[in-house]
Design brief:
The chain has 224 residues and is an alpha/beta fold. Helix 5 crosses helix 8 and helix 7 packs across helix 8. Bound molecules: zinc ion (ZN). Zinc ion (ZN) binds next to helix 5.
Length: 224
């Protein structure tokens, strides 16, 4: 805990004074442009990765960057998405998986979470990835299996995301785009899901067309 207290002292005395005006503005409200849903893994730090300032990113993290589909049982992530879309009016939602993800390893080897019934139950929301990989591949090494599970989980969670009525409505009017990314910790690389092509492509600076996971809008924003 001492490490945290010292860290906060550093923030108060070194960081805060340099951005006093920004924090004054943020004290009474936020208007982030994007919601970023990623894994709780301590190695994934969205604000660091994107050089983001306070107030820029609405971040939600859980084990396995999972979004349960629309259902009677409400989860924290689903409530946060509703708030982000309806109140904060974010224009983008990114679901971001990552390399060496413990949740994805457990998805491939359920015996790893036998003693953790809550984790095992939570990972049921990622079963879609396991089924897709199991039924479409064979003879994979552990690393290859993890590679595919991580990406198929992002695709599956994007599909769950679209079952939420607020998300479907905002996407239909062109007010919201969704994105599926995978972050490689060892190489500092990002891949994005290209729904048109049905594959992940490496994101590069200056890319003309950003790979999109959003279906075409069906209503113009003015008619919505
Ligand atoms: Zn993870």
């Amino acid at each position: 805990m001492k490490r945290l207290i010292h860290g906060f002292e550093h923030f108060r005395h070194e960081v805060f004074p340099q951005q006093r005006e920004l924090f004054k503005k943020l004290a009474s409200g936020q208007s982030p442009g994007a919601m970023f849903i990623t894994c709780a893994d301590s190695r994934v730090m969205p604000e660091l990765m994107f050089n983001a300032q306070p107030g820029e990113l609405f971040v939600y993290r859980n084990i396995g960057n999972i979004v349960p589909p629309y259902a009677q049982h409400v989860s924290g992530v689903v409530a946060a998405i509703e708030y982000a879309v309806r109140v904060l009016k974010v224009e983008h939602i990114v679901i971001c998986g990552h390399s060496d993800c413990g949740a994805m390893k457990a998805l491939g080897k359920p015996e790893l979470v036998r003693e953790m019934p809550s984790v095992a139950a939570w990972l049921k929301h990622a079963d879609v990835a396991r089924y897709v990989v199991e039924q479409n591949t064979s003879g994979l090494s552990d690393d290859e299996c993890l590679h595919y599970l991580t990406r198929e989980n992002v695709v599956g969670q994007l599909e769950h995301l679209r079952t939420l009525p607020v998300v479907a409505a905002a996407m239909a009017s062109g007010n919201l785009s969704i994105h599926g990314w995978v972050y490689d910790i060892a190489h500092a690389e990002l891949e994005a899901f290209d729904a048109q092509e049905g594959r992940f492509v490496t994101l590069k600076p200056g890319m003309e067309d950003l790979p999109e996971a959003t279906p075409h809008m069906r209503f113009s924003a003015s008619a919505a």
